[in-house]
Design goal:
The complex is a heterodimer of chains A (about 450) and B (about 160).
Chain A (H helix, E strand, L loop, with lengths): L5 E6 L3 H14 L4 E6 L2 H10 L4 E5 L8 H10 L5 E5 L4 H9 L4 E4 L5 H92 L2 H32 L5 E4 H11 L9 E4 L5 E4 L1 H17 L8 E8 L10 H4 L13 H13 L6 E8 L29 H11 L3 E6 L5 E8 L14
Helix pairs in contact in A: 1-5, 5-6, 6-11, 7-8, 8-11
Chain B lengths: L5 E4 L3 H13 L6 E4 L2 H9 L15 E4 L8 H10 L8 E5 L4 H9 L4 E4 L4 H18 L16
Parallel strand pairs in B: 1-2, 1-3, 3-4, 4-5
Helix pairs in contact in B: 1-5, 2-3
């Protein structure tokens, strides 16, 4: 119930009807309505311009407008005001028509009692308020949608813009790498080759100092060339999208070992323990990783030591391998040992590890060597570009960076365990490929 | 096989000298003509001045073609050759420092008969030259004419 009386604008040209209505309402709810009575639409419009009303009671046979025209006009001129039309007994159709035109209610003159009329008027006010609130909400919603669409298209425009910039940058990078290949390597090829020719000619002249200097030029040029190639290989890898498919690590690794004389006896001994499983990876990238790891393992050995590398697999599966207890990770074969005779007794242990692999989601491949080892504080650093711990060994410091980038691109991880003088055990953890079926179709990444 | 003329299109002097050195070292004495850019290669093959004298500038049976060349790139030279009715069968082997898959594919698309990457060490260049000799000069059979209405090439 309102504290202040409702301001009612009554438009009714029949004075008797007006009196009747007012009396009937006032009787039902004394003091609740404050009537302003006019007899034409022109007067009503005039009053509405002067002050606000809570509700409009509208007769449909006014001197200046009659019938449905009346409520259509009223609705148009007072779009937010609750309106109740008053119809004659024979004109219920007109009342229903009014409802279809946004009028809140209709009252049939002489039929409704005071209480019903009060209820009708109060409900009409209520309905109109709800309707107006709904309209405001709708409008706000439409505005939000419009804003959202605008932001969205702005965002799309910006994404397109950035993409274009990025594509340009990538294309610039491609051109840059390309010109590195061409322009940097050409003079290097000349330096290297002519120094070599000079060296051959010096063999004849027999100056050993000169030959040594020429050898240094040749070596430096060869190293520079390797650096350029390694950096290029890295940048190509970093930019490429690796397509993942099941790769048979066993076959791949054997193939790598067979195709490089440097990986074969008698110079080195590389053993694969147990059966290596199939992983989800990219064959070219894995070839790069494995040959880099093997190459590292056999390169960094103490002078006079015959390089020995053992490779085996065990279940991965820990989302963060760093938190696992290293003791748990370490298989018996990963313990450094100088005598190869111990290997056969450990094999059963390794096989047991591997047999669990089938149910695992990831696979950890170990590469254990008898090299010089890596101090703890340097173990994370060695994966960074150009990190060379011992300059007396030949290398560019890019190999492990390539390994890490490639493995990360395949959704895996790399790491190591090592102690100076006790060899290093590098590991690569990759997603396991489904063991059933040799087809590649099901698992293309 | 000693008489098969070769045209080497290469703008790097050092590479030309190196190839000549290695050819000499392994005993290949075929006539080797060199031009320094793509346009000159086209003029040479078309017999335009200053290459109109075919006794001094014989039509080659084999072209070794660098890709990164001034004026006309190797790709353009290659496409041009394949468009010439009198030259379209001419065997062209690309000899480039680029091992970009993109370049390799483009070279074959343009009609290359082979693609070799310039090695950076002398020993590898020697082995490459020996392979070229064995394949192209020893075993390969050249067409009698390089195209319709062209004079016999393999002299």
């Amino acid at each position: 119930m309102n504290a202040a009386p409702l301001e009612v604008l009554l438009v009714e040209d029949s004075p008797s009807d007006a009196v009747l209505l007012q009396e009937s309402l006032a009787e039902s709810r004394p003091g609740e309505f404050n009537f302003t009575h006019v007899e034409s639409w022109a007067d009503a419009a005039e009053f509405m311009r002067q002050r606000p009303f809570d509700v409009l009671l509208l007769d449909l046979s006014l001197p200046d407008v009659t019938g449905r025209e009346t409520f259509i006009r009223a609705r148009a001129e007072a779009p937010q005001l609750p309106i109740v039309v008053l119809t004659g007994e024979a004109n219920e159709e007109l009342g229903l028509d009014a409802l279809r035109h946004g009028i809140q209610d209709y009252l049939i003159k002489g039929q409704a009692c005071g209480r019903q009329m009060v209820r009708g008027i109060l409900y009409s006010i209520e309905r109109k308020q709800v309707e107006e609130a709904l309209k405001r909400t709708e409008k706000a919603l439409r505005e939000s949608e419009r804003q959202l669409r605008q932001w969205n298209s702005e965002l799309e425009r910006r994404v397109a813009e950035r993409t274009a910039t990025l594509e340009e940058t990538i294309s610039d990078l491609e051109d840059f790498s390309h010109s590195i290949t061409h322009d940097l390597r050409a003079p290097l090829r000349a330096i290297r080759s002519f120094a070599q020719i000079l060296g051959e000619e010096c063999l004849v002249c027999g100056r050993s100092r000169a030959q040594e200097h020429i050898q240094r030029i040749t070596n430096a040029a060869a190293r520079m060339d390797k650096l350029i190639q390694d950096v290029l290989q890295y940048s190509r890898l970093a930019r490429s999208e690796l397509r993942l498919e099941p790769v048979d690590v066993q076959t791949l690794l054997r193939g790598i070992i067979e195709s490089y004389p440097a990986f074969q006896p008698p110079q080195v001994e590389i053993e694969i323990h147990g059966t290596l499983p199939r992983v989800l990876g990219n064959e070219a990238a894995l070839t790069q990783c494995f040959s880099n790891l093997l190459g590292n393992s056999i390169k960094f050995v103490a002078p006079g030591t015959r390089p020995r590398v053992r490779v085996w697999a065990e279940p991965g599966g820990s989302p963060n391998p760093e938190v696992r207890n290293p003791k748990e990770v370490r298989s018996p074969t990963s313990e450094p040992e100088s005598e190869p005779s111990g290997a056969s007794s450990e094999r059963s242990e390794v096989t047991r590890h591997v047999s669990r692999l089938t149910s695992q989601a990831s696979v950890r491949l170990w590469f254990a060597d008898n090299g010089i080892g890596i101090p703890k504080d340097a173990q994370q650093r060695i994966f960074n570009m150009f990190q060379r711990l011992d300059k007396s060994y030949d290398g560019t410091g890019v190999g492990l960076t390539v390994v890490r980038k490639a493995v990360e691109k395949m959704g895996g991880e790399v790491g190591l365990e090592s102690e100076p003088g006790h060899g290093s055990r590098f590991w690569v953890e990759l997603r396991a490929a489904a063991e059933t079926g040799k087809g590649l179709g099901a698992l293309k990444g | 096989m000693d008489s098969i003329p070769i045209l080497y299109v290469e703008d790097e002097d050092a590479d030309v000298v190196l190839l000549q050195y290695v050819l000499g070292k392994v005993g290949i004495h075929n006539p080797l003509q060199t031009v320094k850019d793509g346009r000159l290669a086209k003029d040479y093959l078309a017999g335009k001045e200053p290459f109109e004298d075919r006794r001094r500038h014989p039509l080659p049976s084999l072209v070794l073609l660098d890709l990164n060349l001034p004026y006309w790139s190797g790709f353009e030279v290659l496409k041009w050759i394949r468009q010439q009715p009198q030259l379209r069968r001419l065997p062209v082997v690309v000899l480039s420092s680029s091992n970009r898959p993109d370049d390799i594919a483009r070279a074959y698309d343009a009609g290359a008969n082979g693609y070799l990457v310039k090695p950076s060490a002398l020993a590898e260049l020697t082995s490459l030259v020996l392979a070229l000799r064995d394949f192209w000069l020893l075993h390969n059979r050249f067409p009698d004419a390089l195209g319709a209405g062209a004079p016999d090439a393999a002299g």
